[in-house]
Amino acid sequence: MKIAILSRDGSLFSCRRLREAAEAGRHSVDIIDPLSCYMNINCDAPSVHYQGRRLAPYDAVIPRIGTAITFYGTAVLRQFEMLGSYALNNSAAITRARDKLHSLQLLAKEGIDLPVTGFADSPDDTGDLIEMVGGAPLVVKLVEGTQGIGVVLAETPQAAKSVIDAFRGLKAQFLVQEYVHEAQGRDIRCLVIGNQVVAAIERQAQPGDFRSNLHRGGTAHRVVITPAERAIAIKAVATLGLEIAGVDILRAERGPLVMEVNASPGLEGVETATGIDIAGMMIRHIEQHGQRRLLSAPSR
Predict the structure, then answer these.
(1) pTM (two decimals)
(2) Does a cis peptide bond (omega within 30 degrees of 0) precede residue 46?
(3) Of 148, 160, 181, nearest in space to 248 by CA
(4) Sign of the CA dihedral 157, 163, 166, 170?
């Protein structure tokens, strides 16, 4: 198969591992910077051009699109989809997952339990907004934040009002969420491929922090998840229409709570902590899809 990896930096761990896994399966691989792509959009002969040349068709595309380039990156991915490439995660699903508010609304609609979450625009609503999520301490989170950036723990009502007012002053879109005390700075990252949880790790925040992201200095180890955690992770990924995702779960007294679904999960933390070849599983998932397409193709 001919596979393209859409990424701005081919030297990143995840891209390197995906390339190695694809080449081990005797596939040809190109790493393409989506921002260097430009497109001819028409009904007769749509195309993607890159560094002065028209790209030949790819059997599959693996999107490793950062949050900062979601708009243009998904536009490029849509163009590949128009040309018949299989996208490991399609553009519509990535767009849904990247909009934290929209994704939480979709998950809640499907009965998936979440931390109590508030969203508002008017500064007149601040007091009621804080009470709606159970009061302080609470978490204020930028809608477009990633890797723990733009996530603030407000421990008192006054601190919560100050953070909310600061975010509003910056014209930033944000969510207010209940703080789950019993999680104690820990969460579970479930790596889902298709309809299976293929790996799970518990992440622990560094002392003095509540954010368990590995990019923020957190640590991780392999963990055994419960049937309820497995089921909610799989359902969350299916709800957003993704094929592969990292599902972040908090262990609350009332049961597992989905905190976020990441459409482009990093592989380094999960592979290092578990020793599982996640990249290889992703390539095999693409191969299985390719085989299904061949079997379903009309005979000539």
Answers:
(1) 0.88
(2) no
(3) 148
(4) negative
Q: Is residue 63 within 8 Å of residue 264, measured between CB atoms?
A: yes
- Show the tokens assigned to 174: 């944000």
Parallel, antiparallel, or unpaired for β 2-6 and 60-63?
parallel
The owner of tokens 């909009």 is 99
Residue 183 confidence (pLDDT):
84
Type and span of the H or E element at 268: helix 268-274
CA–CA dist 153, 216 (Å, integer): 14
The pLDDT of residue 32: 97
Position 199 scores a pLDDT of: 97
- 195 — alpha (psi -120 to 50), left (phi > 0) or beta? alpha
- Cα dihedral 128→171→74→101 (10° resolution): 0
d(CA 160, CA 246): 29
| Residues with pLDDT less than 70, the chain | 122-124, 144-148, 206-217, 293-300
pLDDT of amino acid 300 = 43
* Phi, psi at 240, each rounded to 5°: -90, -5
Element (H, E) at 73: helix 70-82
DSSP lists the bridge partners of residue 190 as 200, 247
